[in-house]
Write a structure and sequence with these properties.
There is one protein chain. By secondary structure, the protein is mainly beta. Helices cover about 0% and strands about 60% of the residues. The chain contains no helices and 11 strands. The chain has strands spanning about 1-5, 10, 20-25, 30-40, 45-50, 55-60, 65-70, 75-80, 90-100, 105-110, 115-120. Strand 7 (about 65-70) and strand 8 (about 75-80) form a beta hairpin.
Length: about 120
């Protein structure tokens, strides 16, 4: 029973910036990783950035140097600061978490998605 609430999507001009946030709640014993994925029309969902509970961060090559992922492990929130946005960044962005209960297996949960549109 994990809930993910996303916010921050919208319309932005090329070169602009946008910040996405995701709040994770529920019965969680351990949160292994938090990540942002995106899916553009006609394309497969792809990993944008991931941060592990130990602080290891991974970025897709296409966003490296432009996007920054961060997490607040106390509040169980993850943010994605996006800058120098291009039309190729237009997609639905999804928050993703890997968690487990005390005795249960790892589970993979997703937010509802938030639309990011980069257009003049």
């Amino acid at each position: 029973q994990v809930q993910l609430v996303e916010s921050g999507g919208g319309l932005v001009q090329p070169g602009g910036s946008l910040k996405l946030s995701c709040v994770v709640s529920g019965s969680i014993y351990r949160l292994y990783a938090m990540a942002w994925y995106r899916q553009a029309l006609g394309k497969q969902r792809e990993l944008v950035a991931r941060i592990s509970s130990g602080g290891t961060i991974l970025y897709a090559d296409s966003v490296k140097g432009r996007f920054t992922i961060s997490a607040d492990n106390v509040k169980n929130t993850v943010t994605l600061q996006m800058k120098s946005l291009t039309p190729e960044d237009t997609a639905v962005y999804y928050c993703n978490v890997i968690t487990s209960t005390f005795s249960g297996p790892q589970t993979d949960d997703w937010g509802q998605g938030t639309q990011v549109t980069v257009s003049p």
